[in-house]
Specification:
Residues 1-180 form the TerD domain. By secondary structure, the chain is mostly beta strands. The chain contains two helices and twelve strands, in the order E-E-E-H-E-E-E-E-E-E-E-E-E-H. The protein has helices spanning 38-43, 183-190, and strands at residues 3-4, 10-12, 23-32, 50-58, 61-66, 78-80, 96-101, 111-118, 127-136, 142-147, 156-165, 168-178. It has a six-stranded mixed β-sheet, with no helix packed on it. The longest helix has 8 residues, at 183-190. The protein is globular and about 50 Å long.
Length: 194
């Protein structure tokens, strides 16, 4: 059963029987908001290129990153499924996804922060139906969903993070607006959430 997360809410990444999850997928989906006015009918729907990234942290320092130009972490535990340049049709499926093999994440990596940014510079006011969701990659069951709300003139969001907690992992919904076209631009905005 999926949990609809609110900003700041955390969930444990364990199965219903209490055992730890081994592999999860952080999916991102979105649509371009319809244009309004007379010119909208002439120009039609525009495309919006949002990019999902996963920044791996060790003791507060960025140690690796997975994004559309570096699809697999150096250790192979985190994989990006590829770049979607236009967004979806609003059907709720993932337009981009990052797969995390939690069992293979090196012991020194204590947090993985998921971000989304508009590479082409459109703001979130031009995006609708945006979400991130965490899926048990073994069973395909959706565990949690966070709606990226708020519109606004920001071009990025720090979506969520997974972090070590005792012997397992937890996910925290962050949903913090930021400005930047790439994950590098977002590093100063990520720091307060570590």
């Amino acid at each position: 059963m999926s949990v609809n997360l609110s900003k700041g809410q955390q969930i444990s990444l364990s199965k219903s029987d209490g055992t730890a999850l081994t592999s999860v997928r952080m999916g991102l989906g979105w649509q371009a908001a319809p244009r309004k006015g007379f010119l909208a009918k002439l120009t039609g729907t525009r495309e919006i290129d949002l990019d999902a990234s996963a920044v791996l942290f060790a003791a507060g320092q960025a140690a690796d990153v997975v994004f559309f130009q570096h699809l697999v972490s150096d250790d192979g535990s985190v994989r990006h499924t590829g770049d979607n340049l236009t967004g979806g049709a609003g059907t709720g499926g993932d337009d981009e996804a990052v797969l995390v093999d939690l069992a293979r994440v090196p012991a020194h990596i204590d947090q993985i922060v998921f971000t989304v940014n508009s590479f082409t510079g459109q703001t979130f006011a031009e995006v609708q139906n945006a979400f991130c969701r965490l899926v048990d990659e073994t069973t395909g069951a959706e565990l949690a969903r966070y709606t990226l709300t708020g519109g606004g003139d920001h071009t990025a969001q720090i979506m969520a993070k997974v972090h070590r907690s005792g012997d397992g992992w937890q996910m925290k919904a962050i949903g913090a607006p930021a400005t930047g076209r790439t994950f590098q631009d977002l590093l100063p905005a990520i720091t307060p959430h570590l």
